[in-house]
Amino acid sequence: MYATLDHAHPIAPGQAAARPERRLRFAGDPQAEPLALGAVQPRGSGAAPERSRYGEARRPNVIALLGAAGIVGGTLAAMLALNVAQARKQAAPRLVVAQLEAPRPPAPPPPPKSAPQPLKPVVQPVSPVVVPPPPVVLTSAPATISTSPSPAPAPAPVPVFAPEPPAPSAPAVAVAAPPRMENAGDLSSKMIAADPPRYPVESRRKHEQGTVVLLVILGTDGKVADISISRSSGFDRLDKAALSAVRHWKWSPTRRDGAPVMVRGLVEIPFVLQT
């Protein structure tokens, strides 16, 4: 919205300046009432100034223009500085770290081919089999026969007059004679109990084999009274296994003339691994 001033009557030259009637109008209100203003006394000569509109006679304000130009220039400089700073931030180089694998060492040369070695025969484990002892044959040892000389004939008795007999003494205690020992033959038919010996585990692993010959003396009850090694198998483990087993064997008692007798003989125990 703006206002204009209109002169009501022009002033003719040579006439006294009359108080003109001016009307103030607003651009947005065309129906506004005219406002009477007092007469304006002209300055200088009596000539009336030329009719002009509001603001037409003003000169340009140099200081204002320079100030406006300075503000615009400062704004442009600030904007350029911000753009340069942002461009520097965006253009900052990024630090890229690359991990490079070290070159692998060259592979070692293949070992020289050796001459093919002959294949060793594969030895399959042999499952040891304990051969049950054969019927034990007691080898009869040479019998030792003790012969006693026959008593000499007594001379004829000569009558002698003896004095009176003394008082009777206590009867002598009879000492029991030791049982008789015989060398027996085959006792396999009279064997009652005979558990076979166990093959030692270490002997199986080492493939130890052999035959043990034992000298056995049987008591009057048929049990082993004494036992010893007559011939070794060559391996201590096999000898001990044979002694341990035969020591618990049992035979039927042997009698001669109705009386029990002791028997002496040999027992063979073979240890054989079957493949």
TrEMBL record:
Question: TonB C-terminal domain: which residues?
Answer: 184-275
Topology versus the membrane: Single-pass membrane protein
The record's PANTHER family line, in alphabetical order, gives:
PROTEIN TONB (PTHR33446:SF2), PROTEIN TONB-RELATED (PTHR33446)
Q: Which InterPro entries match?
A: TonB-dependent_transducer, TonB/TolA_C, TonB_C
Native organism = Novosphingobium lindaniclasticum LE124
Kindly state a single biological-process term from the GO annotations of this entry.
transmembrane transport
Q: Which residues cross the membrane?
A: 62-85
Q: Which GO terms describe its molecular function?
A: energy transducer activity
Question: Where does the record place the region Disordered?
Answer: 1-20
What is one term from the GO cellular component aspect held by the record? plasma membrane protein complex
Q: Where in the cell is it found?
A: Cell inner membrane
Please spell out the taxonomic lineage of the organism that makes this protein: Bacteria, Pseudomonadati, Pseudomonadota, Alphaproteobacteria, Sphingomonadales
Pfam families in UniProt: TonB_C
Instruction: Fetch the NCBIfam families from UniProt.
Output: tonB_Cterm
Query: What's the family?
Result: Belongs to the TonB family.
Keyword entries, A-Z: Cell inner membrane, Cell membrane, Membrane, Protein transport, Transmembrane, Transmembrane helix, Transport
Q: In its UniProt entry, what is this protein called?
A: TonB C-terminal domain-containing protein
